[in-house]
Amino acid sequence: MKGEFQKKIKKILFSTLNCLRKNESYINSLNVFPVPDGDTGSNMFMTLNEAIEKCKDTAEGEFVKCIIKKIVLSAHGNSGILFSQFLKGFLETVRDREGTLKVLKDAFKRGVKNAYKVIDNPKEGTILTVMRKASEAIDNSKNIIEAVTNSFKIRVETLKETPKFLPILSEAGVFDAGGEGFICFLKSLYEIYTGKPADRDFVEIKTQTSSVWKKVPEFENCLEVEVKIKKSVVKDLKEKLRKFGNSILFVKNHDYLKVHIHTNESHRVINFLKRFGDVQSIINRNMRKEHWEFIFGGDSAIVTFSYGKDTTEMFHSLGSSVVIDVNSSIRNIKNIIFTIPVGKILILPIEKYTLSRLKRTKWKEGKDINIVESKSIPEVIEALLNFDSTESFENNLKKMRTSIKILKVVI
Q1: Do 405 and 263 belong together in one domain?
Q2: Residue 291 domain-assigned (yes or no)
């Protein structure tokens, strides 16, 4: 009986992996929170895939135990780490147990508890909400078939609720990407237990209609560091890490520590973590670059500046590719511009001081960067209104400069 249940769990994990593989691009297209970098589906797939690759050749009765050991340190990104924590708690509960309803209920509860405890500031409206609601649906069921059916059925209602918790999802016209990814697990659970195919509900993508997708990530790097611990980890480690960034996930697994953080100071974070042991691996992804690659099409981009949300929204609606806070340092401005994955860039300042700073800046070779001499919001608006995507980069540059000169004469 136990052996059959362990085989069923293995089938569920392989089925979940196959579902994530098939829906990776779709899940990525929903990824707007915490940053719109289009990698949630990829992170969840890689997390489970790496663990399964390390464990697929183990003896039949050892597979689940192997996944428990490997899944956490195979995790990638926010959703991947939360997903791995759920699976670790779930699998630790079902390991060497019989497949009763009580075991399934306990497994979901432990998985949800695991996921919530590793994140620095848990947000509802994310994968956490879908996990919790699925667990509640199972807990209120009378038998296993009803439990797996209810947990899968609750998915639509729960996904529709995610924008209520996170307005940024509503603004972008999507539901939570991590929640959509977790549905692969609920779908697999349902199909393996019932033998019936499970229909999925997809959401409408509006990536081209909302400026949310163009919002520049606050921090440049998504850093993941794995440390083999030599000394005790300070109790307030999360608090100490906050000075370096946000989106902190902190996982301790036996003698290993894994830290995930969004930061502009990767070097300092790594050096800080070296105090506690030997660094085993470092993954440092440029979120801004991933964001640009996810969003951009064509070979040119328009960069403008803003004083706040209203100006940002207006410039995005008029065709600006990227809007940068006018108070940003030149270093930060350069970092943002250099990660835009196009060769030709038009920069429209919003004031004389910004224009002066930009003109004195030395730009990277290989990028065709042109500064339009705009010094006010009306001039930026006029330049944007005269941009025509069907014309050449050079013609647009001339038209923008001419339109600003005409505007100055009129005023």
Answers
A1: no
A2: no
Do 189 and 119 lie in one domain? The reply is yes
Whether 38 and 160 map to the same domain: the answer is yes
Q: At what angle do helices 127-139 and 144-165 cross, to 10 degrees?
A: 150
Alpha-helical segments (H) within 296-351: 309-317, 330-338
Residue 108 resides in a domain: yes
Other CB atoms within 10 A of residue 199 CB: 7
**CATH number of the CATH domain containing 42:** 1.25.40.340
Same domain (yes/no): 328, 179: no
Q: Check whether residue 11 and residue 160 sit in a common domain.
A: yes
- Please enumerate in sequence order all residues whose Cβ is within 8 A of that of 400, keeping only pairs 6 or more positions apart, or say none: 346, 348, 372, 383, 386, 387
Question: Domain span at residue 221?
Answer: 216-286
The answer to whether 305 touches 354, Cβ cutoff 8 Å, is: yes
Residues 51 and 73: their CA atoms lie apart, in Å, by 8
Domain boundary among 186, 213, 240: 213
**Radius of gyration in angstroms for the set of CA atoms belonging to the chain, rounded to a whole number:** 24
Q: Which residues contact 314 (CB under 8 A, 6 or more apart)?
A: 381
Would you say 109 and 145 are in contact if contact means Cβ atoms under 8 Å apart?
no
- Please tell me the distance from the alpha carbon of residue 122 to that of residue 237, in angstroms, as a whole number: 17
The single-letter code of the amino acid at 84 is S
Q: Is 67 helix (H, G, I), strand (E, B) or coil?
A: helix
The pTM of the full predicted model, rounded to 2 decimals, is 0.73
Nearest-angstrom CA–CA distance, 372 and 392: 16
What digits encode the pLDDT tens for the residues 337-354? Answer: 888 878 888 999 999 998
Tens digits of per-residue pLDDT, 209-241? 456 666 778 888 999 999 988 867 666 777 888
Q: How many domains does the chain have?
A: 3
Pairing mode of beta strands 245-253, 256-263: antiparallel
